[in-house]
Amino acid sequence: MSFYFQLIILGLPIGVLWALLATSVVMIYRASRVLNLAVGGTAMFTAYVMYQLNLWGVPVVLALIGALAFAVLFGIATERWLLRPLRDKPMLVSVIMTVGVLALTTELASDRWGVDRQNMPRIMPSGAVHFAGIAVGLDRIFILAITLLVMAAVVYLFRYTTLGISMRAVSDDRRAAQLMGVPAGRVSTTTWALGGLLGGTAGILLSPVIGLTPNGLVFQSIPALAAALFGGLVSIELTFIGAMVLGVLWSLLPGISFGSLHLREVTGVQEAAIFLLVIAFLYVRWEALFGSELREEEI
Description:
Layout: H1 2-32, H2 39-55, H3 60-83, H4 91-113, E1 128-131, E2 134-137, H5 138-160, H6 162-172, H7 174-179, H8 184-210, H9 214-218, H10 221-230, H11 236-252, E3 257-258, E4 261-262, H12 269-298
Antiparallel strand pairs: 1-2, 3-4
């Protein structure tokens, strides 16, 4: 039993980091009606920016600040130069654009830094805490604490600040919000900046856990999308719960056995499970999520 409990504990930090990525997807979708599939690319490239700055001799703290600044500017540039001109186009066009951004960032990272695993500079304390016969790394505890604080700040932003109210107004009815004096364009740009910041933060925190490789971090878009779909691309709270469940499932799967079949011996079982969940969410909730937008485009 303690073995499975340790797997659950180890899955929680992964879950909260997926929640950061998924919250970025939800925020951007609510403000601009764009399903941002490039969030994994933002996370990956931000982590590489920090890695490169540290290689150039920049202190870790300054490299961290510089990388997060890059994530914010990358989000702003993506919205202003790539997606804003497509605002009146069908939703699928914008989604394809984000896929293009994801492919571009992956290719640039692979060409510049290669596909081999790189070692990120350490920003978390080493060591472990032992309780009930279970060892939990201090870095995982710090990741969990930092991410929970960030998620709490995001929830507060959405519910109790002028910016959050404006985001919700634009999400509910963009034209009506504009008529009421809400600067919808500025709200959209700010949301993309915050989305980039969340994605970059998740990439920097994830890379020491799963390794800094282009494809490894880009894959994190898939569980983030699954969690965002679980929340209906609207609810940050449900998105968080979905991401936590996925993180625990990801950690538990290799420890499950069916007789002589051990899932840890099945190549790609964790990735396959996440993909199946995304397909299931899309199948069940496609009409509720995208039906109205697609019908408007057909008209």
